[in-house]
Design a protein that fits this description.
This protein is α+β, with helices and mostly antiparallel strands. Helices cover 35% and strands 31% of the residues. The protein has a domain of 115 residues: RNA Polymerase Alpha Subunit, Chain A, domain 2, CATH 2.170.120.12. A hairpin with a 3-residue loop joins strand 10 and strand 11. Helix 2 packs across helix 7 and helix 5 runs antiparallel to helix 6.
Length: 305
């Protein structure tokens, strides 16, 4: 692969749904791909319950446990309606703009289960992603009245703010060395049923290399005693993202790239400052050295005179 080809970025979507995206990315350094993965997991913000004011709780569950359960409920987050997470973290906006209020007020006339759908929000766009998450079971006459504040945050602070899972693996390159090895075919069919087939004349044939992960292909290789060889493409990866439903997939990816770009911009800004400091220091040291040398020369000339 030439240098020009290495810099040509290509992306091809393999699977896409509301909460899942799988694609092939080519022409990018693994460091950049891994940086994107880390940003998706730890830096993309979403809403999660962070403060709970319990006004009444006669259930069997302690207030602290109840608050913890509320915090782990995924909440729909429209990032376009909130300030940037950096503005919230640095206090550049009113904190109320970075949060939403939810209320839970339930009294049991008979034994019942309180579900996430019982959380009512002031904002119609802010609600639990999944309405049927059980929170607590109430006996007859028991009640819960509380106010929960959901705030924007990042998973690097607490897992309750994690918006998705993300991972990648090298794109597998599979070469059949002994296509007539029936035993190898049987093994690979068990490991990767949608990736291989047996043809009368050709024997073992790879039909869809993307239908199997790199690790499974390596397992197949190790079990086939040299019938196939598996390598990886060092400039090509299969990347997948699984959202918890808090943020639409497109918004999730766009926010990840925005944050990643800002990290690079911040790094360049810090480098510029440090380079300026270094240049100024070296210039100052050079001036002091020249002045000292001049004074020394003048002293020697006076002594000779």
């Amino acid at each position: 692969m030439t240098l020009k080809q290495e810099r040509e970025i290509r992306v091809r979507v393999l699977e896409k749904s509301d909460n899942y995206l799988k694609f092939v990315i080519e022409g990018v350094l693994p460091q950049i791909v891994n940086a994107l993965r880390r940003v998706l997991i730890a830096d993309v913000p979403c809403l999660a319950v962070d403060e709970v004011v319990v006004l009444d709780n006669t259930s069997v569950m302690f207030d602290e446990v109840l608050a913890h359960r509320l915090a782990m409920i995924p909440i729909k987050t429209n990032l376009k309606k909130f300030p940037k997470i950096e503005e919230c973290e640095e206090g550049l906006v009113d904190p109320t703009q970075c949060s939403a209020r939810l209320v839970l007020q339930v009294e049991a006339r008979e034994p019942m289960v309180v579900y996430s759908r019982d959380l009512k929000s002031d904002d119609p766009d802010v609600e639990p992603v999944y309405p049927d998450i059980p929170i607590v079971k109430l006996g007859k006459g028991q009640r819960i009245v509380l106010e929960a504040i959901a705030k924007l945050g990042r998973a690097r602070e607490h897992v309750k703010w994690q918006a998705c899972l993300a991972a990648y693996y090298y794109y597998p390159k599979v070469e059949v060395l002994n296509p007539q090895d029936r035993r190898c075919y049987e093994i690979c069919r068990e490991i990767c049923p949608d990736a291989v087939e047996w043809r009368d004349e050709a024997g073992l044939t790879i039909t869809n290399v993307e239908a199997c992960t790199f690790n499974r292909w390596k397992t197949c290789e190790q079990s086939c005693n040299g019938a196939i060889r598996v390598d990886w493409d060092r400039w090509k990866y299969v990347f997948w993202i699984e959202s918890f439903g808090s943020i639409p997939m497109r918004d999730l990816v766009e926010e990840a790239f925005r944050i990643l770009r800002k990290k690079f911009e911040d790094l360049l800004e810090i480098l510029d400052i440090e380079i300026l400091k270094y240049t100024t220091m070296r210039s100052s040291e050079g001036s002091e050295s020249s002045q000292a040398l001049s004074e020394e020369t003048e002293t020697e000339m006076m002594e000779e005179g």
